[in-house]
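hey so i finally got around to running the thing on that chain from the lab meeting. sorry it took forever, my laptop kept dying and i had to restart like 3 times. anyway pasting the input first so we r on the same page abt which one it is
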Amino acid sequence: MSGIILRSGYLNDFIALGESGQTLFETAIQIRETIRLQKQQALFDCLAIPQHNDVEEKVDWYAPYEGDITPWASASERQREFALSSLENCLSAAGELSQRYLCAEKASLRLFGSMLTKLLQFPGSQYIYLVDDKPVIAFWGFLNRNQSPREDVFDCLRTMKSSDRRVLLEPVQEIPEEPEEIEFPDPKPAIVKISQPDTPLLQPVFQTPDLQAPEHKAEQPQPEAISQTGEKKTRPFRLFRLLKVIAVLMIFAAFQMGYSYVVPRLSSYFDITHVSATAAPEMVTEVQPVRLPVQPATVSAPAPVKKIDPVPPVAMTSAEVRIDKNLLVLPADAVKIGSSAFMDGRWKASINASSTPDIRQPTLHLRIKNSKGTLKVNLDNKVACKADIYLGLMQSGNLQIKSRSRAKCNDKSRYQIPEITCKQGASGAAQCAGRYADDTLVPMTLLKVGK
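ok and heres what got predicted. didnt touch it at all, straight out
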């Protein structure tokens, strides 16, 4: 979409640079036209187009050509290196043009050349945008308050830190080469041949008589010693066997004495005279079987079982798997032709503030018709704010919703409106995000609440 707004801001928040009471901003159109006539196309394309809003003392900066827009904070390392190289070429072109006009005879041309020395000064890196990977500067000729012009204009864009530069500039000290170590072959293991087996470290000690054989080997030990030793070994065994025999005899004797004492008394106790006459068993009469009237059994046929028809499986309707119809979905046909008519109606934008707790994140209410409308927001302290918005589809298919100014609140304050960008995925609702002035991105959800 051609002429899309890159950045907006109030003049009171910045310091305008210039020369002899004339600022670069006041002559921005003449400066860009002069650069174009001098055929400095790269320098001409890197300067955004300012548009002053006299009512709100606000400036809108537009892209000079059409293309996809990428903020400097979201650019890749390769994109930043290419853009920084292009900006350095533009700085060289502006310096040559400035020297040419400073040597002119007319005072007005010399004034113009002096102003060109401050042409590419800008507040910070968040004011650099890449349009089709080419750098475009918003708020050129401005600085933040309490900020002085930088000697190196693009110092804030360089990714290399000063400490890293010092390390790279230091001479590399040559490291002396270590002498090569000479590897000696390992000695071959010595093979030890053992002629005799090793003796154990500890051996049982036996007290044995002298092992030297007597002179007469045929002599036998004395039989008396052997008989005495055998007698000593068998004597405890004989004593134990004798004790067992004595114990058995004592038990048998006790049993005989008890039997002779108990049996006479048991016979007298069970004498028939002690039995009572009433203890005689009575004659049991024969019990007649009881006969009850029994009806003959009848077999009844089982009740017929009703056949239950199987319930057909319930098919999943397409409505059950669809997403919420009120969530924002970018229609492919509308994106193809660049129409934003599907956004007509009332919408609610909910912001997830979990990643940015320091920013007030209320719900935004939008009313859109014919690619423009109003945005209302109610803050926690019962402060209501309102702002005009506009929207459009970019060539990449993304939807952008922006405000030309900050929202005016009923307490005479102003509220920063985020720039909303929505991207349609392969399926489901569109993925939206809001970007604030400090390039803080927060996820958002757009829900249609009415026509």
